[in-house]
Amino acid sequence: MTVQDSLPTSPSRVVEIKNLHKSFGSNHVLRGIDFTVEQGEVVCVIGPSGSGKSTLLRCVNLLEMPQEGQVIVRGEDLTDPDCHLDAARQQIGMVFQQFNLFPHLSVLANCTVAQTTVLKRKASEADQIARANLARVGLNDKITAYPAQLSGGQQQRVAIARALSMDPALMLFDEPTSALDPELVGDVLTVMRKLALDGMTMLVVTHEMAFAREVADRVVFMDGGVIVEQGSPEDVIGNPTQERTQNFLRRVL
Ligand code: ADP
Ligand code: MG
C-alpha cells in the first residue's frame, strides 16, 4: 500500500463506499458493500434481479439511508449527520429506468427548471446550458416538444440532458434502457458511450452486457447483497472466476 492509498480521500476518488448495509424491515438487502469509483471511471454493476443493485445506487445519493457503513462522495461523508445533503446531492445526476420527466413541461423547461430553482442560475444561462446538453444527446430539434410527444428513447435522452445540465461530478444510471423498445436502446447507449469517452464518471446498472464489455473500465457483479466479483470486463464477463458469476452470465449471454 502506498502513501496515496492510505490517505482518507484521494482527490481522484469520486465515490467511496465502505461496509454498506441496508435492510428493509427484516430483509437484509445490502450485506457489506465496499467499492470505489475514480474520476473518469465507468463502472457497470451487473447481477440478478433482486440482488440489491438499485438499492446500492440509491444509497450513493442517499435516496435510501443505510443502517451501517459510509458513502463518501468527493471526500464528503453523506452518512454524517452534519453533512449538507442537498449540496452533496447536487453533484450527482441520476437517470432512472422510468424517465421521470415532468410531463407538463417542455423538453427545454425540463432541462432548465432545476438549474434556475436549485442552482439559481439566470434563465438565459440555464437556457444556453440546456440547449448545449440537448444538442449533446441529439435532441436540439425537440426543445419545444412535450415528453408525451417523444419516443421512450428520446425521453430517456432528455432525462440524460437534464441531469447533465446540473454539471454533475458523477452520473448514476439505473437500467436506463430496460423500459425501451429494442430498436430504441441503441440511441441511448450511443449517448452514454459518448459521455464515457468525454470522461464522465459513471456508475451504471445494466443488463446490456455488450455495452458493459465495451464501455466499462470495471464491472461489478452483485448477488444476494454482496459484491461477488469485480474487475475488468474481460475478466468478469469474459472469464469469471466465481461460480455465481458464471451461472448468471450463462443465463443472460
Ligand atoms: P435489483 O435492483 O438488483 O433488482 P433492488 O435493489 O431493487 O434489486 O431490490 C433488492 C431487494 O430489496 C428486493 O428484495 C426488494 O424487494 C427490496 N427492496 C427494494 N426497495 C425496497 C423498498 N423501498 N422497500 C422495501 N423493500 C425494498
Ligand atoms: Mg433494479
Automatic annotation (TrEMBL):
The keyword Transport applies. It comes from the Bacteria. Its EC number is 7.4.2.1. CDD domains: ABC_HisP_GlnQ. It is found in: Cell membrane. Its main location: membrane. Keywords: Amino-acid transport, ATP-binding, Cell membrane, Membrane, Nucleotide-binding, Transport. InterPro entries: AAA+_ATPase (IPR003593), ABC_ATPase_HisP-typ (IPR030679), ABC_transporter-like_ATP-bd (IPR003439), ABC_transporter-like_CS (IPR017871), MetN_ABC_transporter-like (IPR050086), P-loop_NTPase (IPR027417). It catalyses: a polar amino acid(out) + ATP + H2O = a polar amino acid(in) + ADP + phosphate + H(+). GO terms for cellular component: plasma membrane. It is a peripheral membrane protein. One of its GO terms (molecular function) is ATP binding. PROSITE patterns: ABC_TRANSPORTER_1, ABC_TRANSPORTER_2. SUPFAM superfamilies: P-loop containing nucleoside triphosphate hydrolases. Residues 15-249 form the ABC transporter domain. It holds the Pfam family ABC_tran. PANTHER family: AMINO ACID IMPORT ATP-BINDING PROTEIN, GLUTAMATE_ASPARTATE IMPORT ATP-BINDING PROTEIN GLTL. Belongs to the ABC transporter superfamily. This is ABC-type polar-amino-acid transporter.
